[in-house]
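Example 134, ligand zinc ion.
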Amino acid sequence: MTTVVDFKAYEGKKIKFKYVPPKNAADDAPRTIEGTIDMATDSAILLKERGSAMLKLIELSGIESDTIEFIVDPPTEIKQKTVAPVTVGGARNHLLDKHGWKLDAINGTSDEDAYKIHSAIDHENLGHVHEVRE
Ligand SMILES: [Zn+2]
């Protein structure tokens, strides 16, 4: 059975699937495999199987695609960063890079207006907050 999953995008991620080894392999019994994808190519993946330190080469042709499950890790917490206060001259670039402003909006806004607009933004739940470092 061929698979249509882009395993390259999942390098470093955990996966579980049913594997049917090639006939005449040392152990050709179909089984469920769980592990971390170390590397992927167009025809095989290198897998660090759960509970084993060794990497194992798995031919994609042996993976039953409808049994593939990616094991999702819970998200890690991202903490708010403290950055220097914005200046009048730096406000436009800051709005563009850190506050999702579009280029045409920035190019239609003066330095002073950008500074005022930014000063009114509540940063409490954003990825950064401005503070003077002692
Ligand atoms: Zn800001």
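Summary: Helices lie at 91-98, 103-107, 111-119.
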